Amino acid sequence: MNNQNNYLNDSYRENDELELKDLLDILIRRKVVIAGLSCLGILFGGVYASFQQKVWKGDFQIVVSEKSSPRDNPLASLLTNASSNVGNVLPGFDTNSKSLKTEVEILRSPSILFPIYEYVKEERLKKSGGKEFKKYSFNAWRKKNLTITLKKNTQILNLEYRDNDKELIVNVLNKISKAYQQYSGRDRNKGIENGLNYLDKQIEIYKKKDLKSIKEAQSYAIENDLIAYKMINTTGDERTIDITIGIEAERVRATNKLREIDQLIKQINQSTNLNESFLPVELEKDEVIREIEDLDVKISRLRANYKANDPELKNKIQIRKSLTRTAQERTLNSLKQKRIEAQAAVSSYSRPKEVIFEYRRLLREAMRNQSALDNLEIERTLLSLEKSKKEDPWELITKPTLLNTPIAPVKTTSMFVGLCIGFMASFMGAFIFEKKKNLLYNLDKIDNLINWPLLDIFEGNLIDGWDESLNLIDTGVLASKPNGRISLLKLGELDQELLDKFISKFKTVMNKRELIVTRDIREALKTDYQILLTSKGAITPEDITRVSKRISSQDNSVVGWIMIIK
Question: Could you give the count of Cα atoms lying within 13 Å of 112 in the half-sphere of its Cβ?
């Protein structure tokens, strides 16, 4: 018997887990109470909102230029535009723009906002004594009243200010805007002045370096008979410096000329006929050449009128050959003279490699100093122009504006919160109440606790089907004794109206049998058959355990149990 009771208790504990269906059943069963308290919550939320102090909000928007933000150096973009490497070594400046998120944090800093906080505090003290404001520190005021956000994927900054004092909001927004502008302008001017001072010092240094390097290169060129050709730099100034050394170019040209003369001499020596392309320019109009040209005209005429063996034609051809040999000899003599001159030029332009390398080094150093000086002067000019230009990196795109309606309290929100609180409180109360009473509403749990089979469920809205169910019971579990006495053992508090309907229907269907309806177990055990009768929410697990224990200790003929539902 004890084992059976332990089984019943263990079975109940296994199925005592909170299920969603149980919560829904509680909600349905206690819907009137829950709905009433939820309505009270809505009413309380509306009343609460009506008595709350109104909160007003104002805002404005500014565009933050990332490339010229107030904490960045205005010289940074100028150095980039000037394509200068000198700007990379400027002390105290960062040519990489700070992120906009960093700028937002700067704008939230006490250096900007603390004077605004002091102004608000002073105004509150004037108007109402400021008692409620004394508990707010600067950080608390900033967190509660001020919101600074950056719109995603933009450079637009939203600034919102909230306060109970409607008249104070626009003044505060104007002061914040002005503080931002002063802060950005102060850093901008400071950065420009620092940049100008630094550039002035660097320009003086590089002027000396430039002059010194040019003198060294020129002196070295004079000492070693080197040629320095004029060149025009990017600023239009003439400098006697060329990174491609002039003497080297002249030596190469002289060498190429010598090679060209040698080639002409070789071709003339190998040629059997005079080619005018071999002749130097000064011989092209020589008297011998003119005679050859006249002979060519006469020979052409004779060939047209006479045969090849004509004496006059042969004579003219012989004279032309003689003149051609004379021209070739004069051409060779002229080329040999030019070759001597070319060889002399090659010798005069030749210098030791060490001299050339050193000269190139001096030229490169002079060019570097010149380029650095030019860039520094360009940068100073640009920065001077920047100083004269009025620039405000904080572009105000909307004026400080006060919203027409308060943002808090929002009555609908308060009512919704009241509804949620009322619903949760009433539902939790109903849940705790039912758990405390420990009544069983779950059919599966009841079936697991009762150690006899469920014969049927009789629902109050399906009375017409009761006859068929009772006939099946009569011809089924009760068939062994057609006239046997039956007892209905009531478990828990049953609905009396539903109980009367069930008993009446039971007697009508089983009119040959004697029926006893009782709560007394001993009386029920005197009949031939016992049927347990209960309903949802009518019995506790302890009641079932106690009744099962008492029945099991006696000889009984319990055939099962029936559930009636209203």
Answer: 26
